[in-house]
Amino acid sequence: MHKSKDIYKEITISRGFGEGEERLPFVPWGTSSSFNSGIKTMLSYPAKLRDSLKKLGRSKSMQLVLEGAHDPKDEQLVESFRELLFIEGQLPGKYSDYHTLLRFLRKRDFDFSKAKETFLNYLKWRRNFRVDMIPKEFKFEEFEDVKKCYHHGYHGVDRLGRPVYIERVGMVDLNKLFQLTTIERFVKYHVSEQEKTINLRYPACSVAAKRHISSTTSIVDVNGVGMSNFSKQARSLFLEIQKIDSNYYPETLHRLFIINAGSGFKMLWKALKAFLDARTVAKIRVLGYDYLRALLEIIDPSNLPIFLGGNCTCSDYGGCLLSDKGPWKNPEILELLQTKYAAEEMYSNGGNGNKASEDAPVLNMADIENKDSSTKSTSRHEEPALVGSENAYKLASIKIKGLEAALRDTKNKIEALEAALEETKMVLKGLAQHLEEECGI
Ligand SMILES: [Zn+2]
């Protein structure tokens, strides 16, 4: 479902890459050190934490905003899907929140069997690719140079509060890019950015827009892009990124505007379109050089870079695609999210704040976020409710773990019984044979 994004990646690759994004690509949720120290500071000073929690409590709709209103029909389907995974002993708590499961169901048009297969592949990929460890283990040191030949980045929000992602693929210098980095490293960087979007950009945008945000509006400037740009190396990178986006981050693209499409690109587009399903194609608008009106309908000029016809320059950062401007950089929103995650981390560790700060710093924000998702529907508003829901969550987790263990145990017993039955069959068969030989029965 995310193929549309892949498409522009393909085009991206065909031209080389340009401006970069923000300063800490290898730390998916941005200011990791300040985030980390923020948590530590909060946990070290209960009074400060209390104040922050009060502040959090006053933000009555925060949980609701982050979680969004659930459609009862979707909720029922997600619940059935969850049960299906659980029955097969395949439900990992941390990635089974409502929105993640729903994304996978939607990707497969609510075909449970296909959705299950895709979701299990996703879990396997997370384990094998060590996605949770990327922020800890991977440093994209070449980022500063890469962003000079690959102009891309998040920049502000659309009129409904979704993050806006921009790529100027016509300006990409692919040869230079591959002198600076490798496909493998670039893919890791891409994954770290995807994780940051899921774990930080969407929650921050949700807080800012006061509504649940879980998808991105993308703009790809294909000025000068045509068939001739699509080299073998470009194809390899495109295919790898397409696979990741489509299989593991489905349903996160809201709309994709391809702009400055000339005749060369339009030919390429005909070929690319054949690889996309109708649902994805419906999200893509291919516009020529007269694209501005369409963009301004969905993005305020203050959030549109000057090079696309808006009035933002981000001069303090050296350009719009270097600023990573957006609610995810708003200190108040960050503080609110940090406080929330820190509080949840602390409660989920039985109030052992120091343990949380030492063992599970910002790097576990993805975990925290998912735990959060599991509890959001019950924890609202007031501090005691938050604590209560955390306890309920812990209790439910324990119960689930117990049930999972019981299920495994039962499976083992069934296997043992089957083996015993097989043995009995053999014995009986031998006995029958013996009787036949001895007694002539
Ligand atoms: Zn700007």
Explain the overall architecture.
With 441 residues, the chain is α/β, with parallel strands linked by helices. It folds into three domains: 3-32 and 138-331, 3-Layer(aba) Sandwich (Phosphatidylinositol Transfer Protein Sec14p); 43-135 and 340-390, no CATH class; 400-441. The protein is 60% helix and 6% strand. Strand 3, helix 12 (232-248) and strand 4 form a beta-alpha-beta unit. It is elongated. It starts with a helix and ends with a helix. The structure holds zinc ion. Zinc ion binds next to loops. The site of zinc ion has 8 residues, from loops.
Secondary structure topology:
Blueprint: H1 3-15, H2 32-44, H3 46-58, H4 62-67, H5 72-87, H6 98-107, H7 112-128, H8 134-137, H9 143-149, E1 152-157, E2 163-168, H10 174-180, H11 183-209, E3 216-221, H12 232-248, E4 253-259, H13 263-273, H14 278-281, E5 284-286, H15 292-298, H16 331-348, H17 353-359, H18 365-376, H19 383-439
Which percent range fits the helix content? 55-70%
> CATH first level of the largest domain: which class?
Alpha Beta
The percentage of residues in β strands lies in 5-15%
* Count of discrete alpha- or pi-helical segments spanning 4 or more residues: 19
Shape estimate: elongated
Structural class: alpha/beta
Looking at CATH, the homologous superfamily of the largest domain is: CRAL-TRIO lipid binding domain
> How many strands, which pairing sense, and closed or not: the largest β-sheet?
5 strands, mixed
Instruction: Count up the domains.
Output: 3
Major sheet: arrangement of strands: 1-2-3-4-5
Bound molecules: zinc ion
Mean pLDDT over the residues = 75
CATH level-3 fold name of the largest domain: Phosphatidylinositol Transfer Protein Sec14p
Number of strands: 5
InterPro entries: CRAL-TRIO_dom (IPR001251), CRAL-TRIO_dom_sf (IPR036865), CRAL/TRIO_N_dom (IPR011074), CRAL/TRIO_N_dom_sf (IPR036273), PI/PC_transfer (IPR051026)
GO biological process, one term: protein transport
Membrane topology: Peripheral membrane protein
Protein name: Phosphatidylinositol/phosphatidylcholine transfer protein
